[in-house]
Amino acid sequence: MGYLPFLLTFLFFASLQLDMKAQTHLHIAGTTNPPVHAKTINQVPAGNFVSPAVAIQRLQTEMASLKSQLAQLTEGTQQYKVTMRRYVYFSTIKLEIENGKGVAESINHSLVAIRTTLHDYYATLEDAIVEKTAAINLLKA
Description:
- By secondary structure, this protein is mainly alpha-helical.
- It has a domain at 49-139.
- It has six helices and no strands.
- Helix 4 packs antiparallel against helix 6 (125-139).
């Protein structure tokens, strides 16, 4: 018997620890912002954002584009769900801003709208990171 079982057990748990660490530092390719990490997904994003009026205007423009895309997609397909998820997220951000929340707070608070499992466009953690990064990029000053 010896030390071999202990060594294998140690290596197994060490590999699990490395895998868990890798999963909490997801990098979104192609973004100019520092990546949103799994550990910080629920934190209000830092930085300078556009004014609420400009944010609403940018969101309306983006939502019109998304709505146009949705009209050309087949409902129920993966691309439709992804596009609908972003539309719902941006719509919720806009509503939060209109109700008096700041831009950064609205980006963060609106994640609830796409993180619930009650609809077809549910966002996994990775999806939420992508959507939050897109909103930050759209609304940064």
